[in-house]
Predict the 3D structure of the following.
Amino acid sequence: MTLNEIYAHQKEGNEKALAVLKKDFTTLRSGKVSTAIVDNIKVDYYGNPTPLNQVGSVLVTDATTITISPWEKTLLPEIEKAIQSANIGVNPNNDGETIKLFFPPMTVEQRQESAKKAKAMGEKAKVAIRNIRKDANNKIKRLEKEKEITEDESKRAHDEVQKITDEAIKQVDNLVKEKEAELLKV
């Protein structure tokens, strides 16, 4: 493995960590509702746990309402049960045709709690990035030990790995800052 391959592998890992962070952010509730809130909900569909959006249409009808229209009306009780056990902070309203989720406007405390969760998600991403750095540094040490690179090359490589890590951490900090601002804006 060459140093360039190590750097490329590290950058790829960092990109994945950032993508996971962005996906995690979609589960946080901000001022207006998003269908991402129900993305992780699985419905018992003939014995198989199936994502909610694969058993019906999930639409945001206004700033505080999500409407779920199942393709099979017999799934209404299953969907209702899945939403209740997902504990997303609202009770499903079943009108016999659709299920509506009415989200009350967020309180300041809820916004601060969401901002806190965003920060924790950011920390998790930073840990992942640091683990990727550790892995890259170990590969460099191995190359040096096997005399494939010199001590100077090893030092430069460690510096480069740190630079790549610092850049990724800065991106995480920026994403968290943006998300916090969005969550706390009333």
